[in-house]
Amino acid sequence: MRSALVLVFAVGCGGGELTEAEAEAVFGAVNDVTGDVYLSASTARTGASTTGWSWEQTADGYTFTGSISGGLRWDGTIQVEASLSSAPDGMSADYTFRLDLIDVYLPSRDLTMNGWIEQTLGYAATTTSTTIVYDTAAEVSVTGAATGDASMSYTLTVTAGAGGYSVVAEGDVNGHDVAGFSTSGVY
To answer: 47 and 65 in contact (C-beta within 8 Å)?
Structure first.
């Protein structure tokens, strides 16, 4: 079976007034950052970069903590606390993540974010398709191209199969519906 791991996410925070365009920019910035966090955690787990990471085996997976300084598209620091549990056949898994963002700057979006993201990621595969559901809650303060506080609560469902993939977004950033936001960076 061939399945694609979809790396996605979105987040925003707090209580300031963001325009719809600013809320969408925060949504995209969070997607950029969280994809990098998943990649970094996977790399650390396989032993390629284990400095500063702690792993503890559980009955059906593991828990881990660590710090990431800079990613593919951002600078700054992210503290990670997470866990993974998976089915013995590898056809389903659940991740939980807590990310604390410290001066995370995305040059391509001219945004700096501080705050936290909590997310549960559910992965399920069959012989013909893969579905990943991201349930996210976040509070971030942003400066730069968008300035203010963003509070986000959303569900992002990604389904991939032989015919391609689809992304369905439900929820909001400061009351702005994410269903109309671009998910072009989601893969």
So the answer is: no
